[in-house]
Amino acid sequence: MYLTMMQKTKVIEREEVVVRFSGDSGDGMQLTGSLFSNTSAVYGNDISTFPDFPSEIRAPQGTIGGVSGFQVHIGSGDVHTPGDQTDVLVAMNPAALKANGKFMKPGGILIVDIDSFDEKSIVKAGYQTEDPLAEEHLGDYYVIKVPITSLTKESLKEMGLDAKSILRSKNMFALGLVCWLFNRPLEYTQTYIRNKFAKKPQIVDANLKVLQDGYDYGMILEAVTPSYHIQPADIEKGFYRNLNGNTAVAWGFIAAAEKSGLELFLGSYPITPATEILQELSGRKDLGVKVFQAEDEIAGICSALGASFAGRLALTTTSGPGFALKAEAIGLAVMAELPLVIVDVQRGGPSTGLPTKTEQSDLFQALYGRNGESPAVVIVASTPVNCFDYAYMAAKIAVEHMTPVILLTDGFLANGTQPWRIPDLSEFPAIVPPLVHQKKDGWYAYARDAESLVRGWAVPGTPGLQHRIGGLEKDYFTGALSHDGPNHQKMVDTREAKVQKIADSLPPLEILGNEDADLLVIGWGGTFGHLHTAVARLNEQGYRVAQAHFHYINPMPLNTYEVLKRYKKIVVCELNLGQLAGYLRMKFPDIQYAQFNKVQGLPFTSAELVDNFKKMLED
Amino acid sequence: MQEASALTYTDFKSNQSVKWCPGCGDHAILNSVQKAMAELGYSQEEVAVISGIGCSSRFPYYMNAYGFHTIHGRASAVATGVKIANPELKVWQITGDGDALAIGGNHFIHAVRRNIDLNIILFNNQIYGLTKGQYSPTSKKGFVSKTSPFGTIENPFRPGELTIGARGHFFARTIDKELKLTVEVLKEAAKFSGASVVEVLQNCVIYNDRTHEVLTEKGFKEERTIVLRHGQPMLFGKDNDKGLMLDGLNLKVVKLGDNGITEKDILVHDAMNPDPSLHLKLANMEYPDYPVAMGVIRAVPYATYNAELVEQIEAVQAKSKIKSFKDLVFSGDVWEVK
Ligand SMILES: Cc1ncc(C[n+]2csc(CCOP(=O)(O)OP(=O)(O)O)c2C)c(N)n1
Ligand code: SF4
Ligand SMILES: [Mg+2]
Questions:
Q1: Is this structure's pTM higher than 0.90?
Q2: Minimal CA separation from B227 to chain A, in Å
Q3: In the CATH hierarchy, which top-level class contains the domain B4-211?
Q4: A513-559: per-residue pLDDT in tens?
Q5: How far apart are CA A268 and CA A271, in angstroms?
Q6: How far apart are CA A263 and CA A425, in angstroms?
Q7: Which of A381, A613, B119, B278 has the least C-beta neighbours within 10 A?
């Protein structure tokens, strides 16, 4: 209703905008950000989000270490990344400005809670002068100084709330204001507030009032401030919801369990940023998921392997340091030829490294981090929502090929959200476990399918199929223990061939962008969105750039070499020092690869990619 | 089950030839386990034997059952997964003193603490057999081995004490040579629902021969061990004329007839007492101060993790509206794009 009443000075039509909410970790910025994202998604925009938590749980208030941010990129076209720079920054205190000012786009809008810019807070944030706004060189920006704290207090003074509850509602004022700025209806947030605090009517009233007052405050500003309009995106019809990468992983396995008819078992130990998968599945007792929170990562994977032996869809989830602990048991899964999915949500390494930050840290660990010739399938997700699809595929391949599958995601995908078109399970391929139910003549535990080389899965409890497996080498023909040299060679070759055969059923490596290009940009995993945006931008500018993104790393798509061979210049872009590049050099040594690498705990920015690719094109 | 009860111990033998050293205590334990399973009326397909690495851990290969020879120290964790995944299976964990108490100590105590319904058979030869003779966490202080040429300077674990310390609800001890007792104890362990730890004192003829010999020596074993049975007085000795009493907070060995002591004064074994203090004292008795306790020392019924998990799942399912993947993905904030 306000929309029709208002006459705004300036409405900027934009295809996309990046908004970042930032404040102290107690300021409720994650909630504010996700409410705004969801509002936009429901409105019909495509979105991509990136929460940026402080790594310390209780960092001192008002310090840079305690700043919590939530960035959302909304657009009327496809949105592939949470955006490099922000058009609109909400800073609830000086520390938030200090931490995020550098990410602002010239000409953008900065909203600050001016009440919080007292001398003490300014010093605490690490500013040198008394005027942080000047210090940030914000000449080009619309700076909107709003006394958010005092307006919130004013708004609620009649409500009889305690001071703490009043201050807690500040974020709703900011949210109301940002909703005004983007012509966003408040219904979504209002419904959320009513449901969330259903048992506390006073809090409901307070939050609704502050939200509305924040929105109305926008009208006072309208003479000086532009507002934005972003058309709904043209997206596929269907039902949608927002989904982050970790939940997507959890749900992918739930889908695979239902589709295969196997009970789902997770053995895991908490570790950032993978813990949410464990938490989500722990809550899925309603769907019969068995979750075992083990005493460590080794027990996590070993219990899963036990469950796999017992005939279940077995899973273990972790991040880099925990993944290192699982190495020996992955080797056992290779040797025992049991299905098992290991999810590694990568984070900055080595050692404890940067627990809350993203990095493509573990490709080598996934490929090579075991003793002996120990081939495991390595699959990678590239967007928060396709974590669902690749989790499903990881389960399918593990079960159908009786092999461990390592699924790599990363901190960026895990916490990022996107709208997800809810699929029907019929859209997914069947999962057919190679279960053996009856003893046939000549059956033994390692008897293989001649084509796929996959052994049958005879599950304890099945009469007549008792057998023994383990980590010792076995005779190719009888499955009994064998130390024979030529037999070992045959078994090593067979296990490798079994994994390579999976390539026959993989989709080919796709070429995106301009196929007829001067430069091929290669990546894998969570960098997809930034690479894709950079490639699209260059093609718009008249350059000719192609993109190929790997989701299957072992085995690789069958057409990989043929694709690589077509391009004179190839650049492999990774958030590490060149692990995929090294792997490609080993596999296809006659091809030249340039590299673009970064290890700062942050995603690429599309801008830095564009600059770099331009240089390469001009060389 | 009718068919199953017809099985004899040979039905639990696999077609693999047994490769332990001649004279190794493991042979006898294998026979006892097979005998116990036959007497328990098991069918072969419902048994899963899970082991780690060590001489003893070769055990599954010799069993006509489902078997998984895993990696060093992790048998408890794998067995836990098997049992949780399929609580119908009879899961027997075979493990050595190194496998369970050194590299696998963490998994062992947690499996015990959680009371996973496993039969954990701990082969205690006080040595690393497979790696050819290094001291283990149960080797006595001062023990000379290849890696302790001047004697160890560490205190050993006592498996019973560790089990009880980890809040274990079942602990029993037996010795390889005593087939009858071993079969009896194994059957008790199998019937107990929860983590049953059975310490089997096992002789390694090659690297630690006769460590337990004082307890088996002809003519002396009755004086040096006491077989505990629930509800029976704690009597021992060739003539059953010695017994255990409490003297203040400590156990005391007494002789019937001395100072007017009669059978009535002797402690009666209560394996089902939830209070572990006396069980701990019994488990810790060492020769020559005391007879070494054999038999079921502690067996206190308690809810198992695997059963409670199933109950919890059923309770949640009875209440939840989410019955399928579809229900799940449509719960929460969903919007339609038309
Ligand atoms: C990860 C790992 N570390 C070390 C070993 C070597 N190793 C194999 S068995 C063993 C000790 C076995 O002792 P115990 O568990 O007492 O079994 P026993 O041979 O005495 O029956 C060792 C150290 C191994 N196989 N794996
Ligand atoms: S080395 Fe010792 S424990 Fe191992 S098989 Fe020989 S006697 Fe038995
Ligand atoms: Mg040993």
A1: yes
A2: 35
A3: alpha beta
A4: 999 999 999 999 999 999 999 999 999 999 999 999 999 999 999 99
A5: 9
A6: 17
A7: B278
